[in-house]
Amino acid sequence: MHSLRFSALVALFAAAIGFATPAIAQNRETPYWASIRVERVNMRVGPSESYRISWVYRRPQLPLKVLRVKEGWRLVEDADGARGWVTARFLSRDRTAILVGKGLVALRANPGDDAKLLWNAEPGVVGKLGDCDEGWCRIDIAGHVGWVRQARLWGAGEP
């Protein structure tokens, strides 16, 4: 009987933590970086499914800047400056970045313009963001890892 009460208490505690976690997540300071975690996300003009869809993202790992938090919704901004509301459950805190600017982006073996050139990538390519230091960031693009000037990345640095 005692172990049954203990099991019930543990289950109740676990459920309480499960319900508390989303409330804690709502209290994050904004802005912060997030990325799309699914294949398709609707951006809406307001924080509810009753608002019209203004854009549909079909780019998993695309970085977004979270500007506001409202219940289960996030007001986000993308690299082009488009703003709208997305459902929080479709976002991840995994850091990613998108290559930006004009012309090819050099990915180097080490931080520095004189480091060995590994390859060039097109603006618009998305990768997993690693550490940034002194204006250079490590990025993993589909298993190809290199260093890129931070100025050529949207999603790196402070939001």
Description:
25% of the residues are buried. It contains 1 helix and 14 strands. The model is unreliable at 1-26 (pLDDT under 50). The chain has a 5-stranded antiparallel sheet, with no helix packed on it. Strands 13-12-11-8-14 form a 5-stranded antiparallel sheet, with no helix packed on it. Strands 2-3 form a two-stranded antiparallel sheet. The chain is α+β, with helices and mostly antiparallel strands and 159 residues long. The chain has 2 domains: 28-94, SH3 type barrels (Roll), CATH 2.30.30; 97-154, SH3 Domains (SH3 type barrels, Roll), CATH 2.30.30.40. This is SH3b domain-containing protein. InterPro entries: DUF1058. Residues 1-25 form the signal peptide. Keywords: Signal.
What is the secondary structure topology, with strand pairs?
Layout (H helix, E strand, L loop, with lengths): L1 H25 L5 E5 L4 E4 L8 E5 L5 E8 L2 E5 L5 E5 L3 E2 L3 E4 L5 E4 L8 E5 L4 E8 L2 E6 L2 E6 L3 E2 L5
Antiparallel strand pairs: 1-4, 1-7, 2-3, 4-5, 5-6, 8-11, 8-14, 9-10, 11-12, 12-13
Organism: Caenibius tardaugens NBRC 16725
Pfam families: SH3_4
Keywords: Signal
What is the molecular shape? elongated
- Per DSSP, what share of the residues sits in E-state strands of 2 or more residues? 35-45%
Which regions have little confidence, pLDDT < 50, spanning 5+ residues? 1-26
Q: In the CATH hierarchy, what is the superfamily of the largest domain?
A: SH3 Domains
> Order of SSEs, N→C?
HEEEEEEEEEEEEEE
Q: What is the subunit arrangement here?
A: single chain
